[in-house]
Design brief:
8 strands; Arginase, Chain A; 10 helices
Length: about 300
């Protein structure tokens, strides 16, 4: 039976001050995400874009767009839980603050199914700040702290089913704030920075994490930030950090995730088309998503080289 894939647009652009991520969902659509999935025999249902709920929460002097971020969190929490009942949801971002809602929503669904929720965080950053520790006031740096039930989120909706820290794996790290580092030192989060990946490769730690998910019969949500990738291949992100995952490392991760059969939902976040080069980052995100969903290496189309000649 063909898989049903639910595309949920989340044009959230309030988690940081640099604008442009609200164009991300449409850029992924234009880059052919639905077509790439359909070619794999997947039934694709694009539900359009979610809108933030309104509230009467007051602005905060230090936190950027707190009321709007809370409105998005609540809306996406409901949308994610509903989408999980329909198939395999892919949340099209939008900045990474959207994961406060998407991850909380899929975790609530997993709890209702009697399954533990696991989280693979592919990102240059841990996003483990809280409203009290963030120095920038940008709430896209807080979602993992929120969904794991860390204190300090009293203004936000309660997380229905916080994810245990030991069920979280982060890969691609290369920019961590001191308060995040201090908080993570006392928690069993599975951390893999690019130094460790350079020394030992990306396959072994991912394989070990997937084995734990399988043993627990867990649901696995993958949250994929553009800045997991090296900016030389994915420039369309406002938080570029040199030294990210290569093209082959990223495809290997996605191929291994597909082969595991464990992934139940996906975020694609921080794509800022205003910073892209002729859509190359959006196209790469579509390629990688297709690998996650089953496209084999021999099935990939040949694309023109950026310099103008055929590869």
């Amino acid at each position: 039976m063909a898989m049903d894939c639910i595309l949920v647009g989340a044009p959230m652009d309030c988690g940081k001050t640099r604008q442009g991520c609200l164009m991300g969902p449409d850029a992924l659509r234009v880059a052919g995400l639905a077509r790439a999935l359909s070619e794999l025999g997947i039934n694709v249902h694009d539900t359009g874009n979610v809108a933030a709920l309104t509230n009467d929460i007051a602005d905060h002097p230090h936190l950027n767009a707190l009321p709007e971020t809370i409105g998005w969190t609540e809306a996406l929490m409901h949308a994610a839980e509903a989408a999980m009942c329909e198939g395999f949801p892919i949340f099209l971002g939008g900045d990474h603050a959207l994961s406060m809602g998407t991850v909380a929503g899929v975790a609530a669904h997993a709890k209702a199914q009697g399954r533990p929720q696991f989280l693979l965080w592919l990102d240059a950053h841990t996003d483990f700040n809280t409203p009290q520790t963030t120095t920038s006031g940008n709430l896209h740096g807080c979602p993992v702290a929120y969904v794991t039930g860390q204190p300090g989120f009293d203004a936000f909706p309660a997380v229905p089913s916080p994810i245990p820290a030991e069920n979280v794996c982060m890969m691609g790290l290369r920019s961590v704030d001191p308060p995040e580092r201090e908080a993570l030192e006392g928690l069993p989060v599975d951390l893999h920075d690019m130094r460790a990946i350079d020394e030992h490769g990306i396959a072994a730690p991912l394989r070990a994490f997937l084995a734990r998910v399988a043993e627990a019969r867990g649901a696995l949500h993958v949250s994929f930030d553009v800045d997991f990738l090296d900016p030389s291949i994915a420039p369309a992100v406002g938080t570029t950090v040199p030294g990210g995952a290569t093209y082959r490392e990223a495809h290997l991760v996605m191929e291994m995730l597909h082969e595991s059969g464990l992934v139940t939902s996906l975020d694609l976040v921080e794509l800022n088309p205003f910073l892209d080069e002729r859509g190359r980052t959006a196209s790469l995100m579509v390629e990688l998503t297709a690998s996650l969903m089953g496209r084999k290496i021999f099935d990939r189309p040949t694309r023109p080289y950026a310099g103008g000649f055929a590869a």
